[in-house]
């Protein structure tokens, strides 16, 4: 059947300002419509490749997520890229556990390919084979010299799609952990597992490795160098938040001390080493985790809101 006769093509066409020939051209060339740049990873761990789709491709990626794929199942254990979910939702369930195991996937987005997308679409939707090809063309990037289509870091659709593709993994691991009295959450490529029985984490770790290798279409692999196992005897952190022995989460004493000093400096008309934009951004982030602390801090120094901080400094 002709691509232009597909129901999905006609729906995309009706929701876009483009003509049929222009949309067809984008579909045929979409996997190569990316601009690449690199950013430094934290702690000097090399560079991360960012593949930014062109403006017109971004438009169709967002359109697909909003109108076509929004009902794909996402497991509750997935805490990233979801409305009303945050890193606090990822960290807080582990705060009362004595032992925390942190795992990380290698090259998470690029590990997820068109093969996985087609499998999930087949299981959950009624798209034709041509329509599934269209969706993969719009959502995936083809690297230079490669045949495979993969999710990219930089596409606005990749976060939601990754959560949908991980549903089988999340469900299997969550059920396994529930039976073993282990807490499981996942924030993008970061896995957190916790329990108050130390020996259980070794067993769960082995199961995670088995599960990752057994779901072939995901092509997941753990980054063994980033595996961390900590107990209440030591400082426990998850996605930048500190787990307290009292069962709460915070940004930690040192970060609070730095922010207090910066806000105090600004209240006196000074210029701290950090930029005003950075300070406001950090306070907005902390506000989502510890609202009372932020409100108390800014009011103590005579500000009515985060936006007012450093207004005269710029």
Gross morphology: globular
- Termini gap: 59 Å
- What about the largest sheet? 4 strands, antiparallel
SS strand fraction: 5-15%
Classification by helices and strands: alpha+beta
Low-confidence stretches: none
What's the total helix number? 13
Number of E-type strands: 9
Tell me the Rg in angstroms: 23 Å
Helix fraction by DSSP (H/I, runs of at least 4): 40-55%
Please write the string of helix (H) and strand (E) elements. Answer: HHEEHHEHHHHHEEHEEEEHHH
Please state the average pLDDT score: 91
Strand order of the largest sheet: 4-5-3-6
Can you walk me through this structure?
With 314 residues, the protein is α+β, with helices and mostly antiparallel strands. The protein is 44% helix and 14% strand. The chain has helices at 7-14, 20-29, 55-68, 87-91, 108-111, 114-124, 129-139, 158-165, 167-179, 198-214, 253-267, 276-287, 291-300; strands at residues 34-40, 47-53, 99-104, 183-187, 190-195, 228-231, 236-238, 241-243, 249-250. A four-stranded antiparallel beta sheet has the order 4-5-3-6. Helix 9 (167-179) runs antiparallel to helix 10 (198-214). The mean pLDDT is 91.
Structural key phrases:
314 residues; alpha+beta; 4-stranded antiparallel sheet; globular
Q: Can you summarize this structure?
A:
This protein is of the alpha+beta class and 314 residues long.
Describe the protein's topology.
Blueprint: H1 7-14, H2 20-29, E1 34-40, E2 47-53, H3 55-68, H4 87-91, E3 99-104, H5 108-111, H6 114-124, H7 129-139, H8 158-165, H9 167-179, E4 183-187, E5 190-195, H10 198-214, E6 228-231, E7 236-238, E8 241-243, E9 249-250, H11 253-267, H12 276-287, H13 291-300
Antiparallel strand pairs: 1-2, 3-5, 3-6, 4-5, 7-8, 8-9
Helix pairs in contact: 6-7, 9-10, 12-13
């Amino acid at each position: 059947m002709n691509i232009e006769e597909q129901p999905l093509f006609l729906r995309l066409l009706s929701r876009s300002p483009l003509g049929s020939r222009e949309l067809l051209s984008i579909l045929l060339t979409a996997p190569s419509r990316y601009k690449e740049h690199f950013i430094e990873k934290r702690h000097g761990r090399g560079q991360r490749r960012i593949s930014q789709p062109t403006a017109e491709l971004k438009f169709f990626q967002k359109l697909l997520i909003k109108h076509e794929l929004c009902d794909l199942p996402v497991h509750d254990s997935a805490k990233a890229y979801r409305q009303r979910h945050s890193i606090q939702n990822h960290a807080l369930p582990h705060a009362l556990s004595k032992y925390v195991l942190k795992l990380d996937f290698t090259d998470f987005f690029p590990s997820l390919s068109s093969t996985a997308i087609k499998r999930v679409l087949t299981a959950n939707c009624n798209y034709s084979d041509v329509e599934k090809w269209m969706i993969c063309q719009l959502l995936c990037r083809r690297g230079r010299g490669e045949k495979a289509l993969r999710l990219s870091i930089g596409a606005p659709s990749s976060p939601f799609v990754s959560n949908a593709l991980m549903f089988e993994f999340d469900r299997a691991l969550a059920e396994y952990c529930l039976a073993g009295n282990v807490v499981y959450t996942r924030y993008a490529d970061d896995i957190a597992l916790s329990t108050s029985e130390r020996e259980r984490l070794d067993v769960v770790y082995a199961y995670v490795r088995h599960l990752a290798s057994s779901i072939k279409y995901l092509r997941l692999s753990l980054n063994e160098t980033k595996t961390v196992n900590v107990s209440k005897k030591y400082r426990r952190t998850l996605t930048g938040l500190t787990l307290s022995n009292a069962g709460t989460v915070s940004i930690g004493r040192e970060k609070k001390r730095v922010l207090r000093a910066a806000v105090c400096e600004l209240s006196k008309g000074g210029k701290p080493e950090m930029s005003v934009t950075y300070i406001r951004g950090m306070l907005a982030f902390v506000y989502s985790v510890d609202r009372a602390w932020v409100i108390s801090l800014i009011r103590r120094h005579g500000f009515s809101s985060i936006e007012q901080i450093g207004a005269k400094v710029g």
